[in-house]
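Late entry, written up from scratch paper. The run itself happened at the end of the previous shift, but nothing got recorded in the book at the time, so transcribing now.
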Amino acid sequence: MGVRTPLRSAYRRDVNTLRRAHTSDLSAAELRDARALMDVAFDDDFSDHDWEHGLGGVHALVHDESGALLAHGAVVQRRVLHDGRSLRIGYVEAVAVRPDRQRRGLGGQIMGALEQVIDAAYELGALSASDDGARLYLSRGWQEWKGAVGTLGPTGVIHMPDEEPPLLWGADLDPTHELLIDWRDGDVY
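Output as recorded:
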């Protein structure tokens, strides 16, 4: 069962509703709406692998009074190896706001809900940001990883010197040690 919180928009007099729910608690229609939002918000540059990466965790959704989906994000569990430890992290995926409703605080509402999940359930948070998204995340206290990154793939460690560094939440990690994230199809980060 999801958590619903009414939100008053600073820009309009309508009341939006924030809902947090696990993938398994979302209806097929809600999942279709969220997937469609990704295509619109990312100008059809959001792959099926990208969508799959956001499933299996906790979603945050903002709907308007009529039930239309305005914003979405998800946090899923992943593992990173760092300095001899395997850390359980909350990895943020599929964050989008309907283009006609951007720059009105909805992305911040989504991130606030996801950051609460990370704080309560994971050792730290991580995400890969677009240039536009990075401004939002950095303004909220996310920090750019300053060390090397890679992945533990099917053939062993794969160093990724050309990969954009992830942004981290609540992390106090030593950047002299590489951050190795678990392997997955599509974009690893």
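The radius of gyration is 17 Å.
(Scratch paper discarded after transcription.)
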